[in-house]
Every structure is written in C-alpha cells, then in structure tokens.
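Thread: "does anyone have the structure for this chain?"

Original post by V.I.:
We have the sequence but no experimental structure in hand. Need at least a predicted one for the grant figures.
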Amino acid sequence: MTNVDPHELQKFSELAHRWWDPNAEFKPLHELNPVRLDWIDAHAHLMSKRVLDIGCGGGILSESMATRGATVKGIDLSSSALGVADLHSLESGVEVAYEEISAEALAAREPGSYDVVTCMEMLEHVPNPAGTVAACASLVKPGGWVFFSTLNRNPKAYLFAVIGAEYIARMLPRGTHDYARFIKPSELANFARAASLLPVEIKGITYRPISKHFGLSNDTSINYMMACRREA
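Reply from O.Q.:
Generated one for you, tokens below.
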C-alpha cells in the first residue's frame, strides 16, 4: 500500500495553485527556504550533485537547489502540485525533473542513485514516517546525505505550531498539522539508525516575529531539521 493519507494529499492539492504566492498560505515556506537551503548546501555541497527532493510540492526547495548547481528530481503524489511545479520551472528557466511517484516506489526502481535526498516538512503528514525514512536511505548512495525536517511532539510544539501558527497568527491554514503525528527527535534518530543512516547534526528552527525571519538555533523543541549520512 502507498504510504499516503488521502486527506492530507487532498488538503495540499487544493492549495497547489497558491504555492508560489509569497503572501499566501505557503508564505512560511518561502521565508524559511533560504535558511534550510544554506544549511543543506553547507553540509552536502550541492554543486554538481544528483539530488532528490521527496514531497517537493510546488518545487520551492527543488528549484533553489537547482540554482546551486545540483541536478534535481522532485517527487510528490499530488498531481496538482506537480503541475504548478512544472509550470513554474518553465517560467523561471530553472530545470527540475518532476515525477508523480512515492518515495517507496522510486526506491524500488532507483536504489542508491542520489548523492543527496531531502524530505522536508513531510514526515508529519504520512501514516508511516519510518517507512519514508527507510525509502530515503535506500535512495541515497553510500556516504551520501539525507536531510529531514519536521515538528517535535510536546506541549510547546502544540502551543506554537498549531494554536499559535494556525489559530492566532494565522501563518498557516487551520488543520495544516495533526499534533498526534509530530515526531520527537529521538524517534526520528531511531528511524534513521534503523535504516543505516547516521544522524550528524540536528538544528532547531526559530521564528522571530518582530523581524519576521526564520533562523537556526539549538532549540529543537518546535521545528527542527536533521542531517544524516548513509553508512558506506
């Protein structure tokens, strides 16, 4: 069975046409993207690397990694989002190959094919995050990099990421996140190790409401990113 929640897929498909509007529902992704791009590039050195972006949506991260000199493939199960991604790639002139396929299906077809795999803001939306992590590990070459980002599961994360972001600040549409699917860093690290990935660094993501900018920190209590390497 495909590791996808139809409700989650429909939710993001309905918003697909607004993916590249920097002032619409995906505004936080536009503001966060330079931070996560620099962090990924600092570890993996994207120039001339073959990169896979899992759960690419409309292609915000995919295109930005391509502008750093990577050969990028983006995959998603939302045909609406991929249509937007393809159209924007044509308009921007930034070349990205997109395909509607699951990470698990691609892993069966192209194991060990990528220097870098990214899976950002996706794990908290799938029924079996450990399965997605295992697929990422299968897709990356030995010694390659895998990057994840997700939400911690604790009262603070619920207060800020759900109540604060969705209901008070309205940075995100209501119902964007299901708190029960948030993932503790220790759990994600265990998923990674079970898939022969070595966690190398974990960084928290902070939002400064006055300046309205995202930044990296050592506080992983809400949003966090994890960099892993595939065992050689």
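V.I.: this helps a lot. The domain at 6-150+178-202+223-230 is CATH 3.40.50.150 (Rossmann fold).
O.Q.: and The radius of gyration is 16 Å.
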